[in-house]
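explain this.
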Amino acid sequence: MGTHRKPRTGVLDSPAARRGAIGVGAAALASASLLSQPASADDADPPSVEEQRDRADDARGRALEVREQVDALYRDAGAATQRYNEAQEAVERQERSVDDLLGEAADATDRVNEARRTLGAYAAAQYRYGTGLSDTAHLLLSDDPQSFFSNRHTLNRLGEVQQQALTDFTSEQRAAEDRRAEAADALAGLEASQVDAQARKEEVQGRLAEAQALLNELSAEEEAQLAELERLEREEAERQAAAAAAEAAEREEAAREAAAREAAEQEQADAPADTPPPATDDGGSDSDTSSRAEQAIAFAETQLGKPYVMGGTGPNSWDCSGLTQAAWRAAGVELPRVTWDQVNAGTSVPRDQLRPGDLVFFYADISHVGLYIGDGMMIHAPKPGAYVRYESIDYMPFHSARRPG
C-alpha cells in the first residue's frame, strides 16, 4: 500500500520519475476502486434455507388467496353465464314470436286490402248504376244490353251484399290492427330481452376480467405455486374418486353374489326338477337408457380439447350445459338449455348409484354440470381458459345428479 503514502521530497524531481509514479498511482487507484465496489449478484450470498422457506410460504399463501378469489369469480361467471343463456333463450323465443306475428299481420293486411277492393267494386257499381236514370235510359246507354239486366239484378241485391262486404272489411281491419299491436308488443319485449342478455354478457365478462387481473398480478413463483396447488387438488380429487369407485364396485359385487346365492337356494328349495329356468329380464327400458347414455358419452368424448366459451353450444366451443345438452341430443334426448332446468330433467339419482351418462351438478347455486362416465370421473367444459376434459366429480362441491331419458 506504499503507493498511497505521500512521497519524500526530491524523489519525484525528474520527469521520468514523475511519469513512473503517475502510472503506479493510477494502477493502485484502479485496484482500490474495484475492491471498494459492492459484490455482484453472482457473488452475493445465496438466501438461507429459512429465507427460501419463508419466500415459498409467502408465495404459496398469495397463490392460495388468489386461487380462492379467482374461483369465486369463476363461480359468479358460471352463474351469470346460465342467466345469459336464459336471456338468450328468451331472445330466440321472442324472435320466433315476432316473426310469426309479423307474418300474421301481413296476412291480415292482405285480407283487409282484398276486402277493400271488394267494397270498392260494389261502390263503383252503385255509382255506375245507382243514379236516378230510368231503366230505359240505362238500357239505351248500356254498351251491352244483356249485361244491363244482369247488373240490374245485382243492384237489387246490392244493399245486403254491400253491408256484408262492409262488415267483412271492418272485421279484417280490426284483426290486422290487433296483430300489428301484438307484433309491436313482442318487438318491445324482444328489445328488453336483448338488453337483458347484453347485461348478463357484460356481467360475465366483468367477472372474467377481474379474475384475469388477479392472475396477471402473480409473480412467476406465485404462478408456480398456484399450478402446484391445482395439481395437488386434482390428484386428491382423483384419489377420492378412485376410492369411491372401488368401494362402489365392491358393494355391487357383493350384492350380485348375495343375489346369486339367494336365487340358487330358492331354486333348489322350491323348483321341481323339470321346471325350466326362469326367463331372464333383458333390461327393457334400462337397457335402452344405457344405450343412449353410451351414445351421449361417445359424443362428449369427441369434444375433448375444445375450448370453454360463455354461451357456447358447439361445434367448436362449449359451456357446461351446452355440452351436456348436445351430448344427450346426439342420443335422441332433448334437454333444456340451462343447468337450473336440466337439474329437473329425468329422474333423481343418489350419488352412490351413479351410472355412466348421468348428469352431475355442482355448487349450491347449481351453476355447473358435467356428464358422468364412471369410476368417479366426468367429462365437462370447466371454465374460461380451459378445455373440455375429464375430471373427478370430487373436484367441485357436489350438488345432485339426474338420469335423462
Notes: The radius of gyration is 43 Å.
